[in-house]
Amino acid sequence: MYATNDISTTNYTRPADYSDAYPSNGDTSSRQPKANNFQATPVNQPGDFRSVGPGPWAPFSYSSPKGMTPPGTFIERPADQPPGAPNTGISFRSEGDLSDYRVNSNNLRGLQPDNHGIYVRNQSDRSKSYFTKIDGNTYQVGGFDRSDTSWRVLDPQSGKEVFKVQKENGKWVAKDLAPPAKSYPPGPKGRMFKALDGGIENVRQAKTQLNRDWDSHTSSAMRSLFGGGAFTPSGKARIQAGLDNTLRAMETTKRQNGRNLSQCQGSWPGGPSAQAWPSTGEICFSPYALRSWRDGELNELAVHEHTHTGAYTNDNWYLKQDLSRYPNWSGYTAPFTFSNALNNADTMARATSVLANNQPGWRMK
């Protein structure tokens, strides 16, 4: 939790008993920074945000792209070349589309609905689970709201509330849930914190979607990113490990109030969009990128940097919006293999955006 604002989330707690719940009324290769002389300035104190970084731009000896040992510094794509990442979230799903969240109708076996169409199952631990049928499909619900007698459809994979449903003229109607409003500090600090939160959510959603069925767009993108290895159990397990390590690093950054995050010295379009120091976990973001990149692009940049500090990835290549590859900051492009893709920060970061949007109607845009 950041000291400058409250960004904690509220966990859903099921009602102890539903029976009386209703109311009666019914990323230029010539400019590269040194790998030393870096001092990070924490950004967790209100009003104390200074531009810091590794000092003057100078030639930098890039680490061997085949190595797994974390190098001194990773230098990212020029700030005037954002990755074109899609923004993730509910906006990619058609309003009222519940199709991803159906559960097995056997959950209703032996149960009868009450007058409001709710099926209640008593569990062995004395808790209760609630289900309903909408257009012939079965959904688990929770989060009952007494004020309007509405429920929340639960994602069977994550348990998260994904849609609000309530009766209108005797029929269940599904409505998108507005994302909870969060307050962030103004300026660069707030954008870094917001990108960290957005990146964490992307990685969490990607972990959930990795072993689910993929729609045609997700399948095509994952094949472009990784090749056929992404479609094998062992390949998915290796991707999963990379996501786990990345998420662990991001959650550590958040838990430590973002003290490893800073704003890089210098701000021009051709300069690096960010830099990371895996040996210390320090990350700095270009002021230019913080001012000009879209939220989805900054989310992906935050994930990219944490794959360096958490999963010790390399920059084997960068990716364009159409997923085509181009040389890294040193002008090098590694051979395209599954292992090189798995060990490439841009690939892992884009995969989180792709997987987080694995749902009907999604397009790379």
Spans of at least 5 consecutive residues whose pLDDT stays below 50 are 1-70, 88-95, 360-365
What are the secondary-structure elements, in order, as H or E?
EEEEEEEHHHEEEHHEEHH
Number of domains: 2
The CATH architecture category of the largest domain equals: 3-Layer(aba) Sandwich
Give the radius of gyration: 23 Å
- State the CATH class of the largest domain: Alpha Beta
Distance between the termini: 32 Å
How does the helix and strand content classify structurally? alpha+beta
Strand content: 15-25%
Largest sheet: 6 strands, antiparallel
The CATH topology of the largest domain is Collagenase (Catalytic Domain)
Mean pLDDT figure: 76
Sum up the overall morphology in one term: elongated
Widest sheet, order of strands = 2-3-4-5-6-7
Q: What is the CATH H-level superfamily of the largest domain?
A: Collagenase (Catalytic Domain)
Number of helices: 7
Considering DSSP H and I runs of 4 or more, what fraction of the residues is helical? 25-40%
